[in-house]
């Protein structure tokens, strides 16, 4: 009896188990996600597990109705490169905004400038937190899923990329969080909408990790005060902490275990010590010799490297020379940093807050509208300004218009960095991502000083002729000088400076033990340092900033101190620039373009335009003067010089003032001559030299006619017509023959 009951009990348990398993399969699995609420009530949702499950990591971030999916894939075998081979691709999809691409193929083609700049923004937020020896090819792809035209997807992409890397098995010391900070009426706005951003005097993106450590800063401002900028950075960094904490909780619950990094082949301690003993004293002497310039220092280090490599190869024949070179470079970097702490001076003999020698020149070549050369140490830029009509404004692609709200730009800056600037050979052609990023930063620094109602389109070009660090900030200085030389009424002089950082870490706590901030850094101080913090602005405030931080997070104290020292350096640079030119040029140059407005009566437009605009085309071909219509009665005339404007004005006056137009009386009866027969009526003139006016079929006769030939009308025939003034909109004459026939018929009937 017991055996029977036991078998029965086992069957019941098995049946229950089957029901439970089938219920689990029938239920839809819950999507793991976190919902982050900011202080202003906005919500950022980050989810995973739905899409791209074959990738190493995937996350979808949503703010409002804008969603971005970010995937991470990293190869399992290390590459031969000694640096981190990280590639970030951010792509804007027209379908996400309910649009079709406007190009010939109707599909997404190469990356736009906006996509490249956003990719660089994400890259600089992620790169500092990868392990030092991580050299696995890693690709981060940001796919726009939906775009609502209200919330910008760039900050959402940074947060999604942080979550994707945290959830993946890729070793990464994150997570980070990112917010956009605006400033409206002295109130800090977190993640402002597109409309709010247009009213904001600040557009700042902050990426930070836990413990309020800043990883990346980038933004532009309308001459915001220093204290307001510091307040915005503090508030934004605090808001980021909730994103970091929630991504960490998502990682703990659903993240993959981090993979083990394959240890690279390392040199024995004996070889490392041999490298140090052979190079240390000589390298120290090079960094203590303040007479070296860029090329002299580089050549001296190259000679030491070559000599040490040969001696090491002789003593250790089986050594991998590439490993020896890497070890030598690490020794040089450590010595460079140690000398700064020990000597209290930099490798060129300057104090930490000392600027390089600066010189400026303007008005260099007569045919140029504006020009300047700005020299700071061994960094030299040549800037030119070209003024043109509004027709030359830079048109933006449709998706960039949707995210920024800007359709076209009447001020834009093009930055070029040819290889001869660093005594190298290389490709000369379309600009790369680095040049595009430097140009965009310099443009942000100068844009707030350009008046909105300036009647010309401004193209500023900057060509780097020599480079030893901070060429983008030299572009801001040279660009400001060139704009003033071109007579552009800028609100104030603008300058830029790059701040560097050298740190020492406490090996136990991994906290910064000591540091030195460096003002106006050299190229070698950027390469071997821990930060490249570029700040541009006027004496009053800040117009643009970009922090490229190479350590895993920077305390707010150092950020604040760097901004303060940059403001002091910026004022000193502006004082030097003002000695060259301190305000926009008021004396006109002979080759400056001229822009005037022309008001004409509606009925005279035909004389000015000509048939199919032939008069305006002929005017442009003969004088180079461009006439564009603003509204019904207003035209804008752009001339490349005052001489061309005078010539064009003479031609326009002749067009508008041919013979004196006789005044026609409303309701008066006049003799009209047919000059052309058309399907819809006849073209007639009432006096010599008059532009032909249309007498429509409906006004030719009391009877309904389909063509003037039905009445036997021919060119040269004379008719009597009644004049009813001009159309108030089109300015065309209103004539009628039909009303005269009606009146004649009535007179005969009365008789």
UniProtKB/TrEMBL annotation:
SUPFAM superfamilies: Eukaryotic type KH-domain (KH-domain type I) (SSF54791), Nucleic acid-binding proteins (SSF50249), Polynucleotide phosphorylase/guanosine pentaphosphate synthase (PNPase/GPSI), domain 3 (SSF46915), Ribonuclease PH domain 2-like (SSF55666), Ribosomal protein S5 domain 2-like (SSF54211)
PANTHER family registered for this protein in UniProt: POLYRIBONUCLEOTIDE NUCLEOTIDYLTRANSFERASE, POLYRIBONUCLEOTIDE NUCLEOTIDYLTRANSFERASE 1, MITOCHONDRIAL
Organism: Exocentrus adspersus
Any one GO biological process: mitochondrial RNA 3'-end processing
Family annotation (InterPro entries): ExoRNase_PH_dom1, ExoRNase_PH_dom2, ExoRNase_PH_dom2_sf, KH_dom_type_1_sf, NA-bd_OB-fold, PNPase, PNPase/RNase_PH_dom_sf, PNPase_PH_RNA-bd_bac/org-type
Domain named S1 motif: residues: 667-738
GO molecular function: 3'-5'-RNA exonuclease activity; polyribonucleotide nucleotidyltransferase activity; RNA binding
Transmembrane regions listed in the UniProt entry: none
Record's keyword terms, sorted: Nucleotidyltransferase, RNA-binding, Transferase
This protein's name: polyribonucleotide nucleotidyltransferase
Similarity annotation: Belongs to the polyribonucleotide nucleotidyltransferase family.
Keyword field contains Transcription regulation: no
EC numbers for this chain: 2.7.7.8
GO CC terms: cytosol; mitochondrion
NCBIfam families: polynuc_phos (TIGR03591), PRK11824.1 (NF008805)
Enzyme class: transferase
